[in-house]
Amino acid sequence: MVMLLISIMAGIVIPLIQPQKFQMDAAVVVVASTFTAQQRGSILRQHNMVIVVDSANGWLRVHRDADNDGVIDTDENFSVIQLDEGVVFGRASATARPLGGAMNTFLDTQDGMPALTFRRNGSSSAESILYLTSARASVSGAFPIDTRAIEIERATGRVRCYSFQPGSWIQTC
User: Fold this and answer.
1) Which among 116, 120, 104 is positioned nearest to 55, based on CA atoms?
2) Per-residue pLDDT tens for 64-91?
3) Do the Cβ atoms of 44 and 64 come closer than 8 Å?
4) What is the pTM of this model?
5) Residue 49 Rama label (left phi>0; alpha psi -120 to 50; beta)
6) Distance CA 60, CA 53 (A)
7) Distance linking the first and last C-alpha atoms of the chain
8) Closest by alpha carbon to 97, among 43, 35, 171?
């Protein structure tokens, strides 16, 4: 009897578990934390921090721009943050946030890729948005609930996260 009840409960609960939701929530926290850390690092180190988006390879490059020239010099450090498997840059079929519907709205470039710069005072180079979604949503155009957005305020460099729910965006993080 107990086994029958457990089987019935498992049959009801297991289909409700959505691993993509947890994967996307984790991915947006990692990316938003990277932006926040670089914004604070720019103030602490008193030099620009440049974050580059390479959508083709699925990673962010963080450049510690010691001389504030926007170019990676031989004596400057950079690191790469790889998106988790199954997570890509993009909006899929979710409706756009007010800042725009492009995958990102970064105005700077570095090595031909979109970039956002956090300045020494903590501000960012532009009011910007970056979208993340699941690979399944990107390929099929369905599953808009897999989409997350990260907005960066220009004046303060403040980072905000949003999760797409059916019909609307909910602030998370």
Assistant:
1) 104
2) 999 999 999 999 999 999 999 999 999 9
3) no
4) 0.87
5) beta
6) 5
7) 43
8) 171
